[in-house]
Amino acid sequence: MGAESPKEECGLFGVWTPNEQVSKLIFFGLYALQHRGQESAGIAVADGSGILVYKDMGLVAQVFSEGTLATLEGTLGIGHTRYSTTGSTKWENAQPSYKPTVVGGGVALGHNGNLTNTIELAQMVKQRSGPLATTDSDLVAEMLAARATDGNLEEAIAETMPLLQGAYSFVMMDERTVYGARDPHGIRPLSIGRLPGGGWVLASETCALDIVGAAFVRDVEPGEMVSIDDRGLRSRIIAKPTPKLCIFEYVYLARPDSVMQERSVHDARREMGRLLAQEAPVDADMVFGVPDTGPVAAAGYAEESGIPYGEGLIKNRYVGRTFIQPTQTIRQLGIRLKLNPLKQAIEGKRLIVVDDSIVRGNTTQQIVRMLREAGAREVHLRITSPPIRWPCFYGIDMATRAELVASDLSIEEIRAYIGADSLAYLSLAGLVKATGSPADAFCRACFDGIYPVPIPEGALEHKFVLERQPTTIE
What we know:
The chain is an alpha+beta fold. It folds into two domains: about 230 residues, Aminohydrolase, N-terminal nucleophile (Ntn) domain (Glutamine Phosphoribosylpyrophosphate, subunit 1, domain 1); about 150 residues, Rossmann fold, CATH 3.40.50.2020. The protein is built from 17 helices and 23 strands. It has a seven-stranded antiparallel β-sheet with strand order 3-2-4-1-10-9-11. Helix 9 packs across helix 10 and helix 9 runs antiparallel to helix 15. The longest helix has 15 residues. The chain is elongated, with a radius of gyration of 22 Å.
């Protein structure tokens, strides 16, 4: 994704099918969702009598082998890729979370998002056995297992979800049924697909449906729970919906080949580039984007402006999450581990560089310096989202105002800090227009400070001081 975007959230995948072993389907589904979390991966499967969970730290292809998948036998299951936003980076916090129920059997759960009332929820839970819950996801799994006193997980979910505040998409399962649920605002996505040979799939993004040959049916609606087993797919509304999908899905989080709210993410990003060219034109010799999200928007900018599109940065496709610490010499090279300038293409030229966002500013500063060292005559930075001024409490790793360069600096001050010749951001109205949906369909809190779910008392004062009045879009 972009050079200096917030850390990703998590990827969810769930399958019920009577016709084949699901472990490989889940593996490939998680492979398609790897961009949503590179810290750990896990799969839970069931064959009607018991749940088996396997999870570990690392990328999907590092965690699972052909031999491991062969041992995960079952016709239903769920999978998860994780980037931690609540709980520390360790094996115990990898998902799916598993908890035994009081009547035998168990519950497995995967979570994308972040809950804001975990302190209150923890007071409702009497820890029964095993390690203490250190994530909001583990806490919810414990609540579900404790409430499924008659073995009815569906009722336990229906009773528990209204108690949760914040952002959540869940995939859950017992020995016979796969469940999916979204919070009433639908801040985090979850889609439903139909397998050609029979069966159903749940996935954070439609690109994961494509990879297993599932046809997109619809999204799980905000406030909805779906149940999938040999009785088919059943729906139940468990909270009044007030849709507020995270608009950052379009900016950065989602893969460009996914579809959200009936809008191709690729098309939305290309439109962001076109609108950015209209809002912030500049004379230059070449337009290019910072991989991975920038090139699509840069193509739109070039198309609208008439300035030639090219390549200026080459990405190392094999740089993922690594546990090997670089030497001091390598550390000083910084961003070159991931990106390297194409000197022959940019030397002596005035460049327009398109990226999706600026969070802290350090990486962007390194990119500008790197381009100048490679011979760029001018560097004009264009960002396909507004300045990120407010923290996210719903599952993206930018939780303090001190981390955000735009929280205190003006655009001109940011430009001076990163060393660009000019800097411009797409307006919030322009970003919303590119999605094809109305402004009130989205959570835009990181841009405008309007939080759709109440933030814990004292959190705003503790994290940052609201110095500006939140803005709205007509």
